[in-house]
Design brief:
238 residues; mainly beta; Porin; twelve-stranded antiparallel β-barrel; two-stranded antiparallel ribbon; 1 helix; disordered N terminus
Length: 238
């Protein structure tokens, strides 16, 4: 698929999502996030300021999300380096929160798209809100890969705002890895996010995160993120 077709398809899906949310009275929200870096599963994708617009539409257990990475210092023909499309379904299970999903990673500069399916499980009213998520690569560079993430979080009120602290660790199995690279614990992170509603349906937040490489035989040090980054965002219910 050409990058023009991918971009047109992405735009069409965003328009479809917004129109569908109106027609079906679905829940929809938009977020604009600006971060000092772009870090993904322990890998330092970019050290340049990254802009991430997101639109999510939910209806009867389904959530469609479109997310993008706008590289402010791109050396390519377009600054829009990545567009991710995902569809998630929350299973009607009362005892736990279980969802399954599909993710398509598109690269407007013409790189081969990546595809994953995901499963996420969390409990109801469990201290520290543990969430276990697994991602299975189907196509592209992630074909055959498995990434598993376990995170816990706690939220406390801070005046009119709320502070959420999250700790997480990821396990990675690269199907194409060759010695000395191996599967195992890959990355750890601690995130603190302060959020506040500034108007009805509109909120702002600021975050700071520390990432560390847990095993350089899983993620090579040259690619891993070890350090602190941060960002701000604004969200609006549509």
């Amino acid at each position: 698929m050409s990058r023009v077709a991918k971009m047109l398809g992405s735009a069409a899906l965003v328009a479809f999502a917004v129109n569908t949310s109106t027609a079906l009275a679905a829940d929809a929200d938009a977020t604009l996030e600006v971060n000092s870096d772009y870090v993904f599963r322990g890998v330092d994708v970019s050290k340049d300021v990254a802009v991430h617009p997101t639109i999510a539409v939910s209806h009867e257990g389904f959530t469609f999300t479109t997310w993008a990475w706008w590289d402010t210092d791109s050396k390519t023909k377009t600054d829009m380096n990545e567009v991710d499309l995902s569809l998630e379904y929350a299973l009607p299970i009362e005892e736990a929160n279980v969802s399954v999903g599909w993710i398509e990673y598109l690269y407007p500069e013409g790189g081969t798209s990546d595809r994953e399916i995901s499963v996420s499980v969390s409990g109801n009213d469990i201290p520290l809100n543990p969430v276990l998520s697994a991602y299975f690569g189907l196509e592209g560079a992630v074909d055959g890969d498995i990434y598993v993430n376990l995170e816990v979080s706690h939220e406390v009120p801070v005046g009119d705002a709320s502070l959420t602290v999250t700790a997480a660790a990821g396990w990675f199995d690269d199907d194409k890895a060759v010695a000395p690279l191996d599967s195992g614990l890959a990355d750890g992170r601690v995130n603190a996010t302060l959020s506040m509603e500034i108007a009805e349906g509109t909120s702002i937040s600021a975050q700071i995160e520390y990432n560390t490489n847990l095993d350089d035989d899983v993620i090579p040090d040259v690619a891993a993120r070890d350090g602190v980054w941060g960002g701000v965002s604004i969200s609006r219910v549509l």
